User: Which sequence fits this backbone?
């Protein structure tokens, strides 16, 4: 349920509304706008709904009370009609900006990290990626440099002025990863690791949540809800492909997720065509398609010598390929801004209930 206070409401009137909510065993969660306070009511609202609505509706300072139909309350567009824009040193993510996250799959050493950071920064990347803790399918594959890798990533970020992103695999790593990186990444294999979601939500840094390769959009948004309800409002959703019967590509890129998410949530949406396709030559067309579909950005893997990469070389771009793709992305983005002015309004009153239809 969403309680919208009127523009001139006093702090005491907002407190009275919060006290009523708390008195019923529910939790008020404030969203401060520039003009007014909006209070989301969290908890098991359904049995108390009519009672609560009738009381709130007549309270001084309350302008409107609306039930939220989505199970992901704080992540829903209903609770927060404006897009979330995440501001990090020198860059903004969301609402019409073009975010380009680039860097190697795995940080393999200081020199390659600095070399890659310089190349992607010069070509227009806005965020530097690199994996230090790597979730590998095989226990015999390169597992990442761990904390040593985090230091190289941080140094490369400082050297180029780019904010950084890296994956955290378990709650015990959250503190050290948050110390070294600007954004925490939760990978596809951990999308429903609820203790990790809660831990990253409490770490005080923006989080990028990749879609589980077998997760529905609703399950994904419920996972985002864990992070937001743990205290972190700045969550980026990353579509990275889902598993289907197709075998030519590593995964199947679900680009429908982009406009659908803009309809359902205020959180920024980025697309990772590297893990989605698994093939270098498919990365560029799918990155362009993602931005054309309205994505707020992309994440791609780039390596100085992809054929020698310790992980995911087949899907990593060379520096030249990245530079060429980044300039094409900027052109598409410029066009799309004029074509999709308001993706939320464009989708219209479609019914999206998460149920599968055959
Ligand atoms: C990654 O981005 O490094 C990664 C492992 O991606 P995913 O979790 O999507 O497989
Ligand atoms: Mn990878």
Assistant:
């Amino acid at each position: 349920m969403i309680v919208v206070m009127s523009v001139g409401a006093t702090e005491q009137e907002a407190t009275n509304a919060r006290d009523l909510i708390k008195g019923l065993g529910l939790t008020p969660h404030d969203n401060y706008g520039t003009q007014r306070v909006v209070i989301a009511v969290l908890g098991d609202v359904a049995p108390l709904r009519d009672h609560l609505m009738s009381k709130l509706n007549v309270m001084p300072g309350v302008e409107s009370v609306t039930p939220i139909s989505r199970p992901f309350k704080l992540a829903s567009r209903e609770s927060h009609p404006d897009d979330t824009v995440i501001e990090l040193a020198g860059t903004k993510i969301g609402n019409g900006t073009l975010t380009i996250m680039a860097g190697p799959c795995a940080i393999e050493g200081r020199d390659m990290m600095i070399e890659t950071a310089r190349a992607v920064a010069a070509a227009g990347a806005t965020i530097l990626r690199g994996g230090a803790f790597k979730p590998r399918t095989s226990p015999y594959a390169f597992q990442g440099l761990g904390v040593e890798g985090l230091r190289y990533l941080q140094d490369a970020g400082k050297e180029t002025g780019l904010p950084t992103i890296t994956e955290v695999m378990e709650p015990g790593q959250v503190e050290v990863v948050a110390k070294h990186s600007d954004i925490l990444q939760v990978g596809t294999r951990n999308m429903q690791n609820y203790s990790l979601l809660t831990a990253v939500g409490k770490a005080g840094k923006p989080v990028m949540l990749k879609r589980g390769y077998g997760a529905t959009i609703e399950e994904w948004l419920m996972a985002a809800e864990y992070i937001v309800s743990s205290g972190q409002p700045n969550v980026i959703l990353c579509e990275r492909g889902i598993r289907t019967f197709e075998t030519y590509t590593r995964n199947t890129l679900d680009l429908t997720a982009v406009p659908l998410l803009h309809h359902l949530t205020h959180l920024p949406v980025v697309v990772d065509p590297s893990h989605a396709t698994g093939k270098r030559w498919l990365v560029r067309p799918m990155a362009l398609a993602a931005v054309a579909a309205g994505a707020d950005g992309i994440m791609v893997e780039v390596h100085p010598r992809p054929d020698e990469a310790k992980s995911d070389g087949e899907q990593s771009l060379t520096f030249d390929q990245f530079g060429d793709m980044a300039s094409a992305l900027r052109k598409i983005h410029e066009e799309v801004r004029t074509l999709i002015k308001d993706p939320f309004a464009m989708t219209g009153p479609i019914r999206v209930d998460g149920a599968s239809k055959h």
